[in-house]
Amino acid sequence: MYLTNLMTKNLLIVCKQSSRSISCTQTLNIKEWRVSRGLPVNRNAEGVLTDGPDYTFLDGRPTPLLHKQKLRMLKQRDFASRIVELSSELDFAKTRHEKMIEAKEEERKTILSNRLKPKGKTLLNKK
């Protein structure tokens, strides 16, 4: 037991002393280069080889989707439904806000029209 503890301590000391820093600037430069040219950051994320089928039938039948293609399609479908849902909520919020502003303006006009009006000689003098 003592020998294994001593060996692990020595191993930890050696590992701490021999550690070195690794630079990731090359990877970052590649990503920036790809993004600056309008390419995806991950070159395997999309493309002809990724999106296309692995094989084709000679009689023209469609090939079944791959697992990742199905996942990507479902993910895109979820994104699209979420976008439609949020845009409809945004439209509802805009119309509700406009209606609230119109209601406040209408209330203000009714308050102004229901004020006490001058009577008698002052009414005749204004005309």
TrEMBL record:
Any Gene Ontology biological process: mitochondrial translation
Coiled-coil zones: none
Pfam families cross-referenced by the UniProt entry: MRPL52
InterPro entries noted in UniProt: Ribosomal_mL52
Keyword Ribosomal protein listed: yes
Primary localization class, coarse: mitochondrion
GO cellular component terms listed in the entry, alphabetical order: mitochondrial large ribosomal subunit
Keyword Lipoprotein: no
UniProt subcellular location: Mitochondrion
Single annotated GO MF: structural constituent of ribosome
UniProtKB keywords: Mitochondrion, Ribonucleoprotein, Ribosomal protein, Transit peptide
Family: Belongs to the mitochondrion-specific ribosomal protein mL52 family.
Protein's UniProt name: Large ribosomal subunit protein mL52
